[in-house]
Write a structure and sequence with these properties.
It contains 13 helices and no strands. It has 252 residues and is mostly helical. The chain folds into two domains: 115 residues, Serine Threonine Protein Phosphatase 5, Tetratricopeptide repeat (Alpha Horseshoe); 97 residues, no CATH class.
Length: 252
Amino acid sequence: MSLAPGKMNFICELPIFLPLIQKMPISPMLASQAVAEPAPWEQERITQAAAAFESREYAKAVALLLPLAQYPAAQCFLGMAYLDDPLQPGMRSQGWESLIASAQAGFGYAWLALGHRFLAGQDRGSQIEVKETQDSVEQARYWLSKGAEQGCAYSQYFLSQSDCKDRNFVTAAKWLYLAATLGHEGASELCDSNALDLDSESLAIAQTQAMEWLNEKAASDDKWALRFAEIRARGRTSTAPTRDKLDRTALH
């Protein structure tokens, strides 16, 4: 009943920016962060740059973002454009610097993007240091945890994969339950297919931890209380996720 970490495949693209932001649960993940807000016209330019990045028009994205590089949102997409542009290999270090600066400023999508890149095993190079961690899996967990704790279902889903890779299966099941409950379709599919081959006691612990997490959020924030009431009204529940299913389909 064990998972072979070498079989895990962490090749996966993030959901595109605009639909993801629209699906961010409850409130923007920046709500508790002191992050500069761009003017409406600047936000429109950042949105255009995000669309260019998703279309792999990296030079266009960079041209739009450079004048706005003081904003964490612009730093995030500027960093990813530098990292992903095959014509600019010399900008990798600057790309990591920009993406990490955005994440450290509290931009939620940068937490997700940075955590995902570490989870996928991307090499940040020796010139950039990430606070507190050395190992890429630990770095992935560090950044994904920030979004997961804010209620981002995508971060919770990827965090479950990180914990599964590190053989923390009960914690992985907890985050998978939460991601499914908050609307992540991939997490729901894993839960509905009975995939984490844990004993009933371990699954019960994971479910209890997930419910406690939701209850704590609902008790501390009115918006979370409303969201939790909506979830309960819809009766959204998840069946047991299984380790075997995660092993075969991780991050696809």
